[in-house]
C-alpha cells in the first residue's frame, strides 16, 4: 500500500478541501517522479503495487512525529494550509516504525468557509455527495481518483498536467449530477470496502478536461 501522512498540528489544522487536494497532488507527484520509473529506486515497489490493489492509507502526524516522517524517503507536497508526505509503496507488514505508530483513524477536518466553485478548465475530483467519509478516507479516495486520471492520460497530457503543478480541485458533486457523472465514461473510483463504506461504492469521479 501507499502511505500518506498529513501534518495536523494542534491548534492549526489544515482546511479539509485543501488537505484532500494536497493528498491527490502528492500521489501524482510521486507517480511522476523519476525514481518511480525505469530503474529508479522506487520503481519496483510502484510496479508491484500498481499490479495489485492501489491501496492508500492516510495517517496524521505533528511536531516530532512529522519531523521523523519527513526524514524517511518520500515526497512532501504543500498546499495553501496542508502538508502531505507521500511515501513509496510498502507491504502491509513492512511499515517503518515511525509511520506504523501514527494514528490512522479519527482524522476530522473542516473548511473554514465553503470552497469556491470549480472552473471548467481544471481537473475536478468529484466526491460522491451521498457518502459520509472521514477526512483521511476522503484523502485516500481523492488520491485514487487522481491516479486513475493519470493512468487514462497520454504522455503529452501527463506532461502538461505536471507542468501545471498538477492543478486540481476536489469538490462534492451536486446530488442531481452524480448519476450523470458516474455514467459519463470518466474514471470512477470503486472502493474495496476495507474501511468505512460498503464494498463497490463509487466514491470519486475523476473529471479531467482531456478525458471529457
UniProtKB/TrEMBL annotation:
One example GO MF annotation: peptidyl-tRNA hydrolase activity
Catalytic activity of the protein: an N-acyl-L-alpha-aminoacyl-tRNA + H2O = an N-acyl-L-amino acid + a tRNA + H(+)
Swiss-Prot/TrEMBL keywords: Hydrolase
UniProt keyword Aminoacyl-tRNA synthetase present: no
EC number assigned by the record: 3.1.1.29
Record-given protein name: peptidyl-tRNA hydrolase
Source species of the chain: Streptomyces roseochromogenus subsp. oscitans DS 12.976
Lineage: Bacteria, Bacillati, Actinomycetota, Actinomycetes, Kitasatosporales
Amino acid at each position: 500500500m501507499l502511505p500518506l501522512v498529513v501534518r495536523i498540528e494542534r491548534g492549526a489544522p489544515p482546511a479539509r478541501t485543501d488537505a484532500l487536494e494536497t493528498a491527490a497532488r502528492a500521489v501524482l507527484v510521486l507517480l511522476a517522479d523519476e525514481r518511480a520509473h525505469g530503474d529508479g529506486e522506487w520503481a519496483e515497489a510502484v510496479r508491484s503495487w500498481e499490479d495489485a490493489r492501489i491501496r492508500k492509507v492516510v495517517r496524521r502526524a505533528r511536531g516530532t512525529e512529522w519531523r521523523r516522517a519527513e526524514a524517511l524517503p518520500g515526497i512532501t507536497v504543500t498546499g495553501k494550509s496542508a502538508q502531505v508526505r507521500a511515501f513509496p509503496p510498502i507491504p502491509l507488514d513492512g511499515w517503518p516504525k515511525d509511520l506504523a505508530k501514527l494514528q490512522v483513524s479519527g482524522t476530522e477536518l473542516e473548511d473554514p468557509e465553503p470552497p469556491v466553485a470549480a472552473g471548467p478548465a481544471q481537473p475536478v475530483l468529484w466526491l460522491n455527495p451521498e457518502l459520509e467519509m472521514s477526512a483521511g478516507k476522503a484523502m485516500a479516495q481523492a488520491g485514487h481518483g487522481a491516479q486513475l486520471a493519470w493512468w487514462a492520460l497520454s504522455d503529452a497530457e501527463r506532461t502538461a498536467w505536471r507542468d501545471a503543478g498538477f492543478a486540481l480541485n476536489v469538490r462534492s458533486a451536486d446530488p442531481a449530477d452524480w448519476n450523470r457523472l458516474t455514467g459519463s465514461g470518466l474514471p470512477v473510483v470503486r472502493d474495496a470496502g476495507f474501511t468505512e463504506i460498503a464494498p463497490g461504492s463509487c466514491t470519486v469521479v475523476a473529471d479531467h478536461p482531456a478525458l471529457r
